[in-house]
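does this look right to u?? phosphoenolpyruvate version
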Amino acid sequence: MVIVMAPGATDEQIGAVVDRVSGAGGEAFVSRGDTRTIVGLVGDIDRFHGLNLRALPGVAEVVRISTPFKLVSRQHHPQMSTVFVGESRVPIGPDTFTLIAGPCAVETAEQTLAAAQMAVAAGATLLRGGAFKPRSSPYAFQGLGEDGLRILADVRTETGLPVVTEVVDVADVELVAEYADMLQIGTRNAQNFTLLQAVGEIGKPVMLKRGMSSTIEEWLMAAEYIAQKGNLEVVLCERGIRTFEKATRNTLDISAVPVAHDLAHLPVVVDPSHSGGRRDLVVPLSRAAIAIGADGIIVDVHPHPDTALCDGPQALVDGDLRALATAVRQLAPLMDRSPALPTA
Ligand code: PEP
Ligand code: MN
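got this back:
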């Protein structure tokens, strides 16, 4: 069961709901979105019905949720959520199409700035870039750590682009949140429940990649872990799943976009770089993402992919970026979406 608070509900009114539920032996989880707060209830639902919660001041609605994920479910929130990123509040949501671009990994200040400038030229309004890299091989470049975060912050100052960057360890969540505008949870950590809870507590937007072998329900349950700790500012990212197919790095499950949109009120973006794993597939997969109704895409770009320390074969260079920019400019309006520009 979920209690939807009215837009202007006060902390006291939210506290009164929590107290009444706790008094009846239940548990109440408060989650804050950009425009409203919801309270998820766990315990004896029949008993909650007797509490007359709907009559409490500040309560807009009491909704029984039949899906296993409650707070992210669309059942209490039919209109899709918009997540705003950074001080300039770049939207990711139903009315816009957000292009997120940048290097797979932060390697040097020069490389990151050059990649960010390529991203801006293509119309990106958010910068991606990994400072902590979860690599399949312990011998591969692991990222620059805090030095990489500093570079991202400098490039944000230089370009104005808010930063999306991955956190791979609970111990680093506070550090990464000091620098990042949005925290990314990678596919390899998609069911690292303590990490999901930690980013749920930090109060910054989160991009949650789908686990490479997660079902859509498992992906939404992962989002529920973040929401249950108080944070509803979650963007889902379909980045391809493991299948028997070897021609592509992963298989982009394009149908996951409308399925997730149907089940959850969270925005959904597509990562055509990590799904295809090939430069030549990024633009076609991006077109598919726009056409199927994704709220944005996140793509790798690199000024010198041949010498990239991570994922060079899938990084876009200038010519591809022009094709990508054209696809976004021409196709997104057909889906009733405008470019996701800063709103503050
Ligand atoms: C990334 O975006 O840099 C990344 C590692 O992606 P994924 O977790 O989807 O593999
Ligand atoms: Mn990568």
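Residues 250 and 275 are 5 Å apart (CA to CA). idk if thats expected tbh
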